[in-house]
Amino acid sequence: QVQLVESGGGLVQAGGSLRLSCAASGRTISTYDMGWFRQAPGKEREFVGFITWNGGRTDVADSVKGRFTISRDNAKNTVYLQMNRLKPEDTAGYYCAAGWVGSRAPELPTKYIYWGQGTQVTVSS
Fold this sequence. Notes:
This protein is mainly beta. The chain contains no helices and 11 strands.
């Protein structure tokens, strides 16, 4: 009942910025907590960050703290991931997800119900 589509990925040089968008259709996402994950070839899916249903609380992984910011606009049914000072190790496919997570272990992919197909981010040196 909820479809998620990521966009905004691309190729950038180290130190550059990108803003990813996650657009939802079907049902409103205003009642869902939203997460961002990433996965590089040959590696497990890694938690990036999450935002609560009303935007009142956000959290990001230590590896991106101070560089990445999550926000949402429920009127537009969209969630964003602003990525600054990108590093080559940020190269991965990025995925958004929706679920009822709250503050209960949002880093676990099993907490989320709906997933997008991903958008690729490649950072060159």
